[in-house]
# Entry
Amino acid sequence: MVAKSFDRGKPCGIIERVIDEIFVDIADFFSQPNAYRSVLILFACIVGAYILSKFLADFIIKIAQAVSVRSDVESNEERFIRLRQVETYLSVAVAVVRAAVVAVAAYVAWILLSPAANSGAAAIGASAFFIVFAGQTLGMLLRDITAGAIMIVEQWFHVGDFVKIEPFIDVSGVVERLTLRSTKLRSLSGEVVWVHNQQIQAVHVTPRGVRTMAVDVFVRDKDKGLKVLKELAKAIPSGPTMIARPLKVNKPEEWGGGLWRITVVGQTAPGREWLIEKFFVNAIKEVDSTVRNKMNRTFIYEPIARYADPVADMKFKRAVRANKNN
# Structure
């Protein structure tokens, strides 16, 4: 090699010297008798690890898809939750299997390429290298894995749940994939969002992926009120990302003073509550928009929109203990 003079004070000279030394090391490696054999062994380990990990991952994914289909049609709540847990564990297993295959392949390659790896000096060198590499490079990865393991053990959420991630303002969606390192979400707009597990400080989980809302109206003519509400309910678009189920108009409840209360209940995808609390409520208001005499209106008072989750009602009934004597 032609010798070159470098100015150690100049960054360009240092970079050129490092590149030059790298090429020298590569040339020395291939000048050894078993260099090409070592390269073939390394290449075979990489290809074998990729093929094996892909095969195992695809097999687990197919099982997870079968479990997903079964959970979507499951009506029993307890079995539904168990199937979601199994789907979550299978999602984690995909990443674990891939990492395990790569680790085994790396170990085999190390043994084949370094026969003296069993010696004490080689073991100490490998340990020192791992400590430095783990401390500088794997620190972030290890924090992700720790956070992911805690969330999985404590069952914060499962694959298929609709979640909102804190501390981010607009990071929400359906959990498509959960691993020890990261969480993959699909937002209502169709965007794919990846979040490092260590960045997740809190999670808002929407049960069954829908939010239940109700609208209360008061009428004097219950038959007329029912007819109008049923016609308005048909105008609300339904679908997985809109009204999950058609609005249900409950039977009128006598309220006293010649008034009847009619409650309309519907379930929307998270973020689509405006279809009920704004669109549907405004449609009710427009029915009597031209009627000046209050006694001639179909709906006596303005409609009241509220959340109506049955589980939340039961929990708050226990939490809110009003004194009947006051």
